[in-house]
Amino acid sequence: MNDASNSLCQRILEKCQQQRWYGPDMYIPDQLQSNLEDGGTMFWYDRDGKQYPINRRTDTDKIPTVWAFEYAPITEERLQIVEQNLGFSLPPLLHAIYSRLANGGFGPGYGLSSLTNTSLSSKRQARFVDFSVFERQTPEAKHIMIPGYVWPNNFFCLCHWGCAIYSYLDIQTGRVFREAYYGDNQYGFECEALSLEAWFELWLAKGIHMFDL
Predict the structure, then answer these.
(1) Strand 155-162 vs strand 150-152: parallel, antiparallel, or unpaired?
(2) Pairwise CA distance, residues 29 & 61, whole Å
(3) From CA 32, how far away is CA 20, in angstroms rounded?
(4) pLDDT tens, position by position, 67-115
(5) CB-CB contact of 97 with 7 (8 Å)
(6) 8 Å CB contact between 165 and 178
(7) Secondary structure of 121-148 in the HEC alphabet?
(8) What is the tens place of the pLDDT at every residue in 110-136?
(9) Share above pLDDT 70 across residues of the chain, in percent, rounded to a whole number
(10) How is 82-100 classified by DSSP, letter by letter?
(11) Domain 3-23+66-206 class?
(12) Are 118 and 82 in contact (CB under 8 A)?
């Protein structure tokens, strides 16, 4: 683990400690409360399935949020097997996060993808293509569109946002893309961050939200 990865892992852990939350951002009680209209109620569930109603008057500090990551770190042996199945190695930062902090389940959206569900790395059974070819075809476009019957090679799913929207790491370039279905059997990709480190730095600074782009 290099110094930069070690430092970022430590800051991720400190963020979780400070906010008293080690799970997906979508389920933070304070965030659920902030999205409610007056008179509305939403239910939050702990890891044992116990239900807690949340409304505008709820003191969310009294909700028993979790004090540890839900999933244990993945072993080096298992990580090597996962990388073999993926067909590529994870960058040092992801390697450090999965082997030191947790096997996903925390962070942006519905949480960093678990490596026990590696199908998300190539979500669709499709012909793999070089994503840069489509970028060169429309260099000024905000969204890079690809047909629904192909899929970018070496894209790793970072997290799910709901509504069939995902964030992917392009292993080749190190950039992070937000992907969504745009109809007419096409998928659109928009650059979300120029590097994985920048993506996590954004999350550490102010969080990342589904409709940021």
Answers:
(1) unpaired
(2) 9
(3) 15
(4) 899 999 999 999 999 999 888 999 999 999 999 999 999 999 999 999 9
(5) no
(6) yes
(7) HHCCCCEEECHHHHHHHCCCCCCEEEEC
(8) 999 999 865 444 555 678 999 999 999
(9) 94
(10) HHHHHTSPPPHHHHHIIII
(11) alpha beta
(12) yes
Contacts 24+ apart (CB under 8 A), 55-63: 58/29, 58/33, 60/29, 60/30, 60/33, 63/29
Task: Please choose, from the candidates 102, 83, 151, 93, the residue with its C-alpha nearest in 3D space to the C-alpha of residue 123.
Answer: 151
| Beta bridge partner(s), residue 127 | 150
What pTM was estimated for this model as a whole? 0.91
Surface-to-core class of residue 131, CB atoms within 10 Å of its CB (0-12 exposed, 13-18 middle, 19+ buried): buried
Hey, how many other C-beta atoms are within 10 angstroms of the C-beta on 10? 12
Place of tokens 């090597």: 80
Radius of gyration of the chain (CA): 18
Q: Answer whether 102's CB lies under 8 Å from 70's CB.
A: yes
Positive/negative CA dihedral, 189, 190, 194, 200: negative
Question: Side chain identity at 177, as an amino acid letter?
Answer: F
Domain ranges within the chain, ordered by starting residue: 3-23+66-206, 35-65
CA distance 120 to 159: 9
